[in-house]
UniProtKB/TrEMBL annotation:
This is WecB/TagA/CpsF family glycosyltransferase. It comes from the Bacteria. The keyword Oxidoreductase does not apply. Keywords: Glycosyltransferase, Transferase. Coiled coil: none annotated. The lineage of its organism: Bacteria, Pseudomonadati, Bacteroidota, Cytophagia, Cytophagales. It holds the Pfam family Glyco_tran_WecG.
Amino acid sequence: MLPRHQVLGTWISTGPPASFVDAVLQLGAARSSAYVCFANVHMVVEAHRQPDFGRVVNQATVVAPDGSPVAAAVRWFGGPRQERVAGMDALPALLEAAAERGQSVYFYGTTPEVLAALEARARHELPQLRIAGSYSPPFRPLSDAEDAEIVARINAADPDLLFVALGCPRQEQWMAAHQGRIRACMLGVGQAFLTYAGLERRLPVWARRLWLEWAFRLWLEPRRLWRRYLLTNSRFIWLMLRSMGSLHPKT
């Protein structure tokens, strides 16, 4: 599997983007009940702040560097130069690769409207893609019986890849809780459903390379995201400075 390097206690997988696609498809083909996290600044900070959540992230088979600061931090902590591997880019790349290799996919999470738009695009652009199914769960805690029914529904569809969009940290906790119960490679891709479905805009590539995607999302959803970005981004910078200071103490 992909080599890992630690960033503030989170073990980030490394390699070119194509190697992440290949690793995920290998897990899918093996029907390995594994899960994949896409770690941005928010996830790394939450994993550092909450040890239980940190264990959930570090137990993933693959932890992709979703955020540009996370990818850059890999090198700052002595790892290789690493490209960003964002869930929003990985989703279309994985769907295309799955279509080429004959692997099936399942979409879990978000709303029926988003799922319908997502599937419509996938069927139009990738007519050979095998979509095993999709399901939008209720926005409330599920009973044990409801959860067992959902697991049975997904396993009956028998997908190779299960894309999960429940938001962080809920989707990561859901995948960890269902490891060993669902016979598929699970991927927590969050907002990628919305962007792939064409329901949320995305910055052009040049702006993403300048690390401006967080500012654009804050502009789109200021009430929901201002506290997250103010607190987590500031804490990430502080933790990085503190960690770098400990790595290079004054003599």
